[in-house]
């Protein structure tokens, strides 16, 4: 690592610190306003035009200059599902999550990242405390594959190869495409629920097994040497579908062309009066959410530039 032999005087350091606070607050304020708008007011009707607009506006609000370089790495952690079969936000059955990531640094503050993530999620009414949900008696499990693209904003200047600016918390947001396939186990055999039309979907009219999502999250970067850093992240995927768990609408009778097992798995309640046609099976007003938590290592590929001795690094 390089060292700067002459420190700036107190007035220069104070000026730099004030600039740091000002620029951080301004960038964070813009970032928060646009993220809040798309997460809160559009959570049930997000489309890709809105996500792309948010991404482009975020890019124009932040300076794109200075340090260049790329990072490549991987991470391991846990994935978890929240939705109709886990509406109480319980963390009861996390699944294994793995992923790889590519990051392109624009400067000490801003970078873009692309990643591929794998996870396993599940949910069951047997874990519920609500009487309706326990009587409904549905469950699912699914492997998920997520391709994501995000913009990251560092709270502190983050410069590889320095002894002063080697760590920072950060926020990120963007979009992804996720592949899923909800299944259930019945009499020791797995069944793909989408193919059974459990909510009365016609043959060929089933929901897609791939859907987009709005990505958001936070993390922490910490250099362990000039080339490698540890990254800890927590990220969410607000899905543009409510069928990660195969539960969204009302009870219906599976079409006659379905196998007999379709009727059995559409309504698994032990109460013969539960789940009549037209009654509520799920809540389609609120889409499913997937969370990933992980820790990983990134390797930096790029030149390590020494700044001018008197240069104010807070920008």
**How many strands appear in the DSSP assignment?**
10
Number of domains: 1
Rg, nearest Å: 24 Å
Helix/strand order:
HHEEEHEEEEEEHE
Residues in helices, as a percent range: 10-25%
Largest sheet: 8 strands, antiparallel, barrel
Q: Structural class of the helices, strands and pairings?
A: alpha+beta
Can you tell me the CATH class? Mainly Beta
**Quaternary organization:** single chain
Distance between the termini: 22 Å
Mean pLDDT: 83
Sheet-strand content, in percent, reads: 35-45%
**Tertiary shape:** elongated
Can you characterise this structure?
The protein has one domain (68-301): Porin (Beta Barrel). The model is unreliable at 1-26, 36-45 and 61-66 (pLDDT under 50). By secondary structure, it is an alpha+beta fold. The two termini are 22 Å apart. The chain contains 4 helices and 10 strands, in the order H-H-E-E-E-H-E-E-E-E-E-E-H-E. It has an 8-stranded antiparallel beta barrel with strand order 1-2-3-4-5-8-9-10. Strands 6-7 form a two-stranded antiparallel ribbon.
